[in-house]
Design brief:
heterodimer, A: alpha/beta, Rossmann fold, seven-stranded mixed beta sheet, 5 helices, B: alpha/beta, putative n-type atp pyrophosphatase, domain 2, five-stranded parallel beta sheet, four-stranded antiparallel beta sheet, 6 helices, globular
């Protein structure tokens, strides 16, 4: 079962419809079992029941997750595949030693995939939807998967299935979510 | 949070308002009155009837004029939102965007520039499921405009029913249309819904239709008890 983590400013917020429900719909259509929790509801002793975790994005003006980054310290102890989307990627960067940095982008843009990974596939260009005020720096144990070191579009842990993508796969790139749902932990 | 809903009188902005009001305060409906019938951003058929809808829902309507020219109307939208903030103290904007990255990105930029929250509670929703949700939640919706093949004259002024949803579902499979009409295929107008304390009764209306393009214009209408 996948844990879908809502990073919006409060549980059951108006933003949940926009940033969590489209991801949930994709998983539902793919026949994947999942459970949705707000980030403030995480019980570390229950993480073992989840095969994978997806950290969703949130509204442009919402920085609550960044103000409460310590709440996510459990991430480094979790050993299953993780996908961080936008705000979720920012959380992962901060937890793994990188930084959240001002890097605003809104709208569809070309994205250069530069490293072949099980999640995004072979190097090529795709189009992705950006909606963020902040980007990330690349943590030490992570590979740049898409973009540049200045503008990190996607990264992956060097040894584990831990991915972050700054664009929103639930918009025009649902195949990424479907592929993540099918990933094995051995990659 | 006090919010302003970008309101066209169609099903999407009305449903977005419905969702917003469940969790927040909707301080005003913001309607841009476009002089351009082919406005890129703003729905035009029956736009002047939004006053009746606002009255039915008991929410103040904030109207703002725009000439409806492609990029200038974005300046008008920004001015309208800034003026609505001044008047109603709104902290964020709600839109009925579903799939249109074009519309959503532009409103997001305006909200960022004005330091406002932006909410799109219908974003990426399954369109056929959504149409059924509208019906089951008690919205009464008419098709107020059609703008694409294969919509014939029978669609103009028709009420959204399960039968029509099934037809839209078939047209989606056959012609790749957006069943909710967000691609500009059709426009709608809401006559009643769960937020409406009174319903709208159409007293007089006129139809135009030619070459897969038609309007259902409400010439006269009133509020009546439900």
């Amino acid at each position: 079962m996948i844990l879908l983590l809502d990073l919006c400013y409060e549980k059951d917020s108006l933003s949940k419809y926009e940033f969590v429900n489209p991801v949930a719909d994709t998983l539902r259509k793919a026949g994947t079992h999942f459970e949705t929790l707000h980030f403030a509801e995480i019980a570390e002793d229950e993480l073992g029941k989840y095969d994978k975790i997806i950290l969703c994005g949130t509204a442009l003006k919402d920085n609550t997750y960044a103000d409460r980054i310590d709440v996510f310290s459990w991430l480094t102890q979790y050993d299953g595949p993780v996908l961080g989307i936008c705000a979720g990627m920012q959380v992962m960067s901060a937890i793994y030693g990188g930084s959240i940095v001002p890097k605003p982008a809104i709208g569809l843009e070309r994205i250069e995939i530069i490293t072949d990974t099980p999640l995004l596939g072979e190097p090529r260009q795709i189009e992705g939807y950006h909606l963020h005020n902040y980007g990330v720096t690349l943590p030490e144990d992570f590979l740049l998967v898409a973009g540049t070191t200045e503008v990190v579009e996607a990264f992956k842990h060097r040894e584990r299935s831990i991915y972050g993508i700054i664009f929103h796969p639930e918009v025009r790139n649902r195949w990424i979510l479907e592929r993540f749902a099918g990933l094995q932990n051995s990659f | 949070m006090n919010l302003g809903v970008l309101f066209s009188g169609g099903k999407d902005s009305t449903f977005a308002c419905y969702r917003a009001i469940e969790k927040n305060t909707v301080a005003c409906l913001i309607t841009l009155i476009s002089e351009n019938v082919d406005s890129y951003m703003f729905h035009t058929p029956n736009i002047r009837r939004t006053g009746l809808q606002a009255e039915a829902m008991g929410i103040p309507l904030f109207s703002w004029p725009t000439k409806g020219q492609k990029e200038e109307e974005l300046v008008d939208l920004k001015d309208a939102i800034a003026a609505a903030r001044e008047k109603y103290g709104i902290e964020g904007i709600v839109t009925g965007a579903i799939e249109s990255v074009y519309q959503a990105a532009r409103v997001q930029r305006i909200c960022r520039d004005l330091d406002l929250w932006c909410f799109n509670p219908l974003w990426q929703i399954n369109q056929v499921d959504y149409l059924r949700l509208l019906i089951s939640d008690g919205f009464k919706i008419i098709i107020s405009g059609v703008f694409a093949y294969p919509f014939d004259e029978s669609w103009v002024g028709a009420t959204l029913t399960e039968e029509l949803v099934q037809k839209l579902e078939q047209l989606q499979k056959k012609y790749k249309i957006n069943p909710s009409g967000e691609g500009g295929e059709l426009e709608t107008f809401v006559l009643d819904g769960p937020l409406f304390k009174k319903r709208i009764e159409i007293l007089k209306a006129s139809r135009t239709y030619e070459n897969y393009r038609g309007h259902f214009i409400i010439d006269d209408a009133r509020l009546v008890e439900k």
